[in-house]
Every structure is written in C-alpha cells, then in structure tokens.
Design brief:
The complex is a heterodimer.
Chain A (H helix, E strand, L loop, with lengths): L2 H19 L6 H24 L14 H33 L6 H27 L5 H16 L6 H18 L4 H25 L1
Helix pairs in contact in A: 2-3, 2-7, 4-5, 5-6, 5-7, 6-7
Chain B lengths: L14 H12 L3 E2 H8 L3 H13 L3 E8 L2 E8 L1 H21 L1
Antiparallel strand pairs in B: 1-3, 2-3
The chains are: A mainly alpha, B alpha+beta.
C-alpha cells in the first residue's frame, strides 16, 4: 500500500465519520432570511402595540387587549412559518448541491433533538399566554430556542451551540428586565440570526 | 523496505468494508438504506460486505419492521470497535515507517 493511498483512505474515513454523524447541509442564508423576517415581524409588532393602541397619552402600552394579542400572535406565526419554509427550501437546495440526502438518520436525530425543547417551550408559552402572563413570553421564547439549538448542535456544525448559548443568555437577561422583551426578542431572533447566518454562509457554503 | 503488517486487519482490506465500519463506529446504529445512500453502493455489494463483517462478529444486526417494511439496522460490536482502532493504528504506523 502506498503512502498516498493510506492518506486518501484516512481522509475518506474521516469525512465519512463526519458526514454520517453530522448534518452539514444547513444553509447559512436561511439564518440570514430568518433574521430579516424576525426584524420585519418585530417592527410590525412594535407598530401594533405602540402606535395604534395609544393616542396622546403616554405609557398606555399595556398588552392586554385580546385583539392586540391576537394580532401579535398572528405576526409571530407568520414569521415562524416563513422562517421554517425558507430554511427547509434552502437546506434542500444546499443538500442537492453537495450531493447529500436531506432525510437521513442524522437529520432525523437533529430534528428530534430540536423538536423536544421547542415543543415543550411552545406549549409552555401557549399555557402562559392562556393564563395571562404575557411578560414572560419573550424570555421563554429565547430560552427554549437556545436550549433547542444547544441540544441539536450535537448533530450539526458546532457553531450552532454558540448561537444557542447566546440565545439562552439573552433570554435570561430579558427575564431580568421586564418591559424590554421586544428589544431582546429582536436582538435574539433578528440580529443574532443575521450575524450567525452570514458567518455560516462564508465559513461553510462557499 | 519491509513494512510491518501487524494489526493490519484483513477484514478491512476492502475499502467499502472499512467505510461501513467508520460509519458504524461514529454512530449508535445505521440502517441499510441510509448506509446505501451514504456510501453510494448497490444493494448486493453492500449486503455482501455487511455479511462479511457480520461473520467476523464486528457488527451486530437488528431486524425490525416499520409497518410492513422490513428494516435492518447495523451497529458496531465492541470487538469491531477494537479491530477498527487497531487497524487505524496500523495505518498510522505504516505512514510513520515510510517517513
């Protein structure tokens, strides 16, 4: 066996171990797009709460009218649907380009480890909404999303773990400072996604 | 120059077998079809190599049914993991000797 052969053998083993255990087709651009949707959503939410609810009086910005809550909820759902849709679309495209399959044991494990904290968090937030604890929604979103990313990061790029940790920290800060939920939400889901997505795009996709 | 072939595992001489083993060592278990997609080999080819590894007791086979479809998944045994590590060591030694 020639030395060159051994090297190619070893590098093929390495790449296989990595590809079989990590899902590397996640698209960085979809992170950027999710961030942009979140910024648009946050702006719409801000308009709904701060402009239309109040006339001339100051600090009447309580989110307790059902119509406002419903509209905010619809904005959030729209942002979520668009982000997930774009994410799936771009990831499928990315996988095709790399000649990988999208639906394989790794992506299944990745999805499962993301979905457990997300589903628990989502239900928790719906329950809080139902019981009227609106102030905890932004911190809970950030916190559970961060936990989901950290748990999913075992099956994809390690960078995802750092995004998750940043989201967790933001969530805790948001919980410390009630009233600034929207700002933290905008940083966490908007700016961080754009930053992370661009880093991923230039680091892995090109 | 004579190269030491100590620990050089005959079962891994075939490239596909070594590749199968690397996937199974990196994962808890892997099913037949996913393995086929990943390695881009034909059914028959993959099956025969899996059979050979099974005969060496390097891998364990679990057959289950997903609804009506049979689903066979493979996992590396402890013996297989050790053999894989030894084989990598042997490759490493080969490189060192050639320097």
């Amino acid at each position: 066996m020639k030395e060159k052969d051994i090297y190619s053998e070893l590098s093929s083993i390495r790449s296989l171990m990595e590809r079989s255990a990590k899902f590397i087709s996640l698209s960085g651009l979809s992170g950027v797009m999710a961030g942009i949707y979140a910024l648009l959503g946050a702006y719409t939410g801000y308009r709904i709460v701060y402009y239309e609810a109040s006339g001339l009086t100051y600090r009447e910005y309580y989110i307790d009218e059902y119509s406002i809550i419903f509209r905010l909820f619809m904005v959030a759902v729209t942002v979520l649907v668009f982000s997930i849709g774009t994410g799936i679309l771009l990831t499928v495209r990315n996988a095709r380009k790399k000649g990988e399959t999208v639906w394989n044991p790794v992506s299944r494990k990745l999805l499962l480890s993301l979905l457990i904290p997300l589903a628990a968090g989502g239900l928790f937030i719906l329950i809080l909404l139902y019981r009227g604890y609106y102030g905890i929604i932004a911190p809970a979103c950030l916190l559970f999303y961060g936990l989901a990313l950290v748990s999913g990061s075992h099956y994809t790029y390690p960078d995802v773990k750092w995004l998750g940790i940043c989201e967790i920290i933001l969530g805790l800060l948001a919980a410390l400072m009630p009233g600034y939920g929207l700002i933290f939400w905008t940083i966490g889901f908007g700016l961080l996604h754009i930053l992370y997505g661009s880093v991923m795009h230039f680091k892995y996709d090109r | 120059m004579k190269l030491s072939l100590e620990h050089f595992d005959k079962a891994f001489e075939n490239r596909i077998r070594l590749q199968i083993m690397s996937v199974l060592v990196a994962n808890d278990s892997y099913d037949f079809n996913s393995l086929k997609d990943l390695l881009k080999v034909t059914d028959g080819n993959l099956a025969s190599h899996l059979k050979a590894l099974e005969k060496e007791e390097y891998i364990t086979v679990t057959k289950t049914f997903l609804g009506r479809k049979p689903n066979t998944s493979y996992a590396a045994s402890d013996k297989g993991r050790d053999a894989f590590k030894l084989h990598l060591k042997a490759l490493e030694n080969l490189i060192k000797q050639q320097k």
